[in-house]
Amino acid sequence: MAAKQPPPLMKKHSQTDLVSRLKTRKILGVGGEDDDGEVHRSKISQVLGNEIKFAVREPLGLRVWQLVSAVMFSGVAIMALAFPDQLYDAVFDEEPVSSKTPIRLYGGALLSISLIMWNALYTAEKVIIRWSLLTEACYFAVQFLVTTVSLVESSRIATGAALLLVSRALFILISVYYYYQVGRRAKKV
Protein backbone atom coordinates (compact mmCIF):
# COMPACT_ATOMS: atom_id res chain seq x y z
CA MET A 1 0.00 0.00 0.00
CA ALA A 2 1.12 3.34 -0.88
CA ALA A 3 1.32 5.91 1.83
CA LYS A 4 -1.28 8.53 1.50
CA GLN A 5 -0.01 12.05 1.02
CA PRO A 6 -1.13 14.45 3.72
CA PRO A 7 -3.37 17.21 2.51
CA PRO A 8 -1.64 20.49 1.82
CA LEU A 9 -1.29 22.68 4.88
CA MET A 10 -3.98 25.25 5.10
CA LYS A 11 -2.87 28.64 6.23
CA LYS A 12 -4.93 30.01 9.09
CA HIS A 13 -6.08 33.53 8.64
CA SER A 14 -6.14 34.42 12.31
CA GLN A 15 -3.97 37.42 11.60
CA THR A 16 -6.73 39.00 9.61
CA ASP A 17 -9.71 37.43 11.35
CA LEU A 18 -10.56 39.84 14.19
CA VAL A 19 -12.90 37.47 16.03
CA SER A 20 -10.30 34.71 16.01
CA ARG A 21 -7.62 37.09 17.35
CA LEU A 22 -9.89 38.27 20.15
CA LYS A 23 -10.72 34.69 21.11
CA THR A 24 -7.04 33.77 21.14
CA ARG A 25 -6.12 36.78 23.32
CA LYS A 26 -8.97 35.98 25.72
CA ILE A 27 -7.78 32.37 26.08
CA LEU A 28 -4.21 33.57 26.70
CA GLY A 29 -5.46 36.14 29.20
CA VAL A 30 -4.02 39.20 27.54
CA GLY A 31 -5.74 42.32 26.37
CA GLY A 32 -8.31 42.33 29.15
CA GLU A 33 -8.40 44.58 32.18
CA ASP A 34 -7.05 43.47 35.53
CA ASP A 35 -8.33 44.46 38.99
CA ASP A 36 -6.65 47.86 38.78
CA GLY A 37 -8.20 48.59 35.39
CA GLU A 38 -4.92 48.23 33.50
CA VAL A 39 -4.86 46.58 30.08
CA HIS A 40 -1.94 44.18 29.62
CA ARG A 41 -0.49 43.94 26.16
CA SER A 42 1.27 40.64 26.79
CA LYS A 43 1.57 37.79 29.25
CA ILE A 44 5.07 39.00 30.09
CA SER A 45 3.75 42.37 31.28
CA GLN A 46 1.28 40.51 33.48
CA VAL A 47 4.00 38.39 35.07
CA LEU A 48 6.58 41.13 35.46
CA GLY A 49 4.12 43.85 36.31
CA ASN A 50 3.74 47.29 34.93
CA GLU A 51 6.25 49.75 36.35
CA ILE A 52 3.94 52.69 35.60
CA LYS A 53 1.68 51.84 38.52
CA PHE A 54 4.68 52.05 40.88
CA ALA A 55 5.66 55.50 39.67
CA VAL A 56 5.27 58.23 42.25
CA ARG A 57 2.89 61.06 41.65
CA GLU A 58 5.10 63.70 43.20
CA PRO A 59 3.38 66.54 45.01
CA LEU A 60 4.52 70.04 44.20
CA GLY A 61 7.63 70.98 46.17
CA LEU A 62 8.51 67.48 47.39
CA ARG A 63 12.01 67.47 45.91
CA VAL A 64 12.69 70.97 47.23
CA TRP A 65 11.62 69.85 50.72
CA GLN A 66 13.85 66.79 50.47
CA LEU A 67 16.80 68.96 49.46
CA VAL A 68 16.17 71.44 52.29
CA SER A 69 15.91 68.55 54.77
CA ALA A 70 19.11 66.91 53.57
CA VAL A 71 21.04 70.20 53.74
CA MET A 72 19.56 71.04 57.15
CA PHE A 73 20.37 67.63 58.66
CA SER A 74 23.90 67.74 57.23
CA GLY A 75 24.52 71.30 58.43
CA VAL A 76 23.36 70.69 62.00
CA ALA A 77 25.29 67.40 62.10
CA ILE A 78 28.53 69.08 61.03
CA MET A 79 27.95 71.89 63.51
CA ALA A 80 27.32 69.39 66.33
CA LEU A 81 30.45 67.43 65.44
CA ALA A 82 32.76 70.42 64.93
CA PHE A 83 31.33 73.08 67.28
CA PRO A 84 29.31 71.37 70.06
CA ASP A 85 29.54 74.33 72.48
CA GLN A 86 28.19 76.83 69.96
CA LEU A 87 25.28 74.57 69.03
CA TYR A 88 24.31 74.10 72.68
CA ASP A 89 24.60 77.83 73.38
CA ALA A 90 22.50 78.72 70.33
CA VAL A 91 19.62 76.60 71.58
CA PHE A 92 19.68 76.91 75.36
CA ASP A 93 21.56 80.19 76.17
CA GLU A 94 23.14 78.62 79.24
CA GLU A 95 26.58 78.02 80.62
CA PRO A 96 28.80 75.74 78.53
CA VAL A 97 28.07 72.04 78.75
CA SER A 98 30.55 70.00 80.80
CA SER A 99 30.88 67.15 78.29
CA LYS A 100 30.91 67.51 74.51
CA THR A 101 30.47 63.78 73.89
CA PRO A 102 26.63 63.69 73.94
CA ILE A 103 26.42 66.58 71.48
CA ARG A 104 28.95 64.93 69.18
CA LEU A 105 27.01 61.65 69.37
CA TYR A 106 23.92 63.64 68.45
CA GLY A 107 25.86 65.01 65.46
CA GLY A 108 26.85 61.49 64.40
CA ALA A 109 23.23 60.34 64.54
CA LEU A 110 22.13 63.36 62.51
CA LEU A 111 24.84 62.67 59.95
CA SER A 112 23.48 59.13 59.57
CA ILE A 113 19.95 60.45 59.07
CA SER A 114 21.25 62.98 56.56
CA LEU A 115 22.66 60.14 54.45
CA ILE A 116 19.16 58.65 54.31
CA MET A 117 17.78 62.05 53.27
CA TRP A 118 20.38 62.48 50.53
CA ASN A 119 19.69 59.01 49.12
CA ALA A 120 15.91 59.54 49.25
CA LEU A 121 16.37 62.72 47.23
CA TYR A 122 17.71 60.74 44.26
CA THR A 123 15.21 57.87 44.23
CA ALA A 124 11.88 57.55 42.49
CA GLU A 125 10.62 54.69 44.65
CA LYS A 126 7.51 55.57 46.58
CA VAL A 127 8.30 53.37 49.59
CA ILE A 128 11.76 54.85 50.14
CA ILE A 129 10.48 58.42 49.86
CA ARG A 130 7.65 57.70 52.32
CA TRP A 131 9.97 56.02 54.84
CA SER A 132 12.42 58.92 54.70
CA LEU A 133 9.57 61.40 55.29
CA LEU A 134 8.28 59.29 58.19
CA THR A 135 11.79 59.11 59.67
CA GLU A 136 12.05 62.86 59.41
CA ALA A 137 8.65 63.46 61.04
CA CYS A 138 9.47 61.07 63.90
CA TYR A 139 12.83 62.75 64.47
CA PHE A 140 11.25 66.19 64.62
CA ALA A 141 8.49 64.95 66.96
CA VAL A 142 11.02 63.42 69.36
CA GLN A 143 13.15 66.55 69.24
CA PHE A 144 10.08 68.70 69.90
CA LEU A 145 9.14 66.62 72.95
CA VAL A 146 12.67 66.47 74.36
CA THR A 147 13.19 70.22 73.95
CA THR A 148 9.80 70.96 75.55
CA VAL A 149 10.57 68.75 78.55
CA SER A 150 14.02 70.33 78.94
CA LEU A 151 12.54 73.82 78.89
CA VAL A 152 9.83 72.91 81.41
CA GLU A 153 12.41 71.38 83.76
CA SER A 154 14.65 74.43 83.59
CA SER A 155 11.62 76.76 83.86
CA ARG A 156 13.40 79.16 81.56
CA ILE A 157 12.47 79.75 77.94
CA ALA A 158 15.31 80.86 75.72
CA THR A 159 14.62 82.61 72.44
CA GLY A 160 16.60 80.00 70.49
CA ALA A 161 14.67 77.15 72.10
CA ALA A 162 11.30 78.78 71.41
CA LEU A 163 12.31 79.31 67.79
CA LEU A 164 13.44 75.68 67.64
CA LEU A 165 10.07 74.48 68.96
CA VAL A 166 8.11 76.52 66.43
CA SER A 167 10.33 75.41 63.54
CA ARG A 168 10.11 71.74 64.60
CA ALA A 169 6.32 71.90 64.76
CA LEU A 170 6.29 73.38 61.25
CA PHE A 171 8.71 70.72 59.99
CA ILE A 172 6.52 67.96 61.46
CA LEU A 173 3.49 69.33 59.61
CA ILE A 174 5.36 69.61 56.30
CA SER A 175 6.85 66.11 56.54
CA VAL A 176 3.51 64.52 57.46
CA TYR A 177 1.78 66.41 54.63
CA TYR A 178 4.25 65.11 52.03
CA TYR A 179 4.12 61.62 53.59
CA TYR A 180 0.38 61.42 52.97
CA GLN A 181 0.57 63.10 49.56
CA VAL A 182 3.15 60.61 48.29
CA GLY A 183 1.01 57.75 49.64
CA ARG A 184 -2.17 58.81 47.84
CA ARG A 185 -3.26 56.73 44.88
CA ALA A 186 -3.38 58.44 41.52
CA LYS A 187 -6.87 59.09 40.22
CA LYS A 188 -7.86 57.02 37.22
CA VAL A 189 -8.81 59.00 34.15
Automatic annotation (TrEMBL):
Subcellular location: Membrane
Cellular compartments per GO CC: membrane
Alphabetical list of Pfam families matching this protein: p53-inducible11
Transmembrane segments: 64-83, 103-121, 133-151, 157-180
Keyword list, A-Z: Membrane, Phosphoprotein, Transmembrane, Transmembrane helix
Membrane topology: Multi-pass membrane protein
InterPro entries, A to Z: TP53I11
Keyword Transmembrane helix in annotation: yes
Protein name from the UniProt record: Tumor protein p53-inducible protein 11
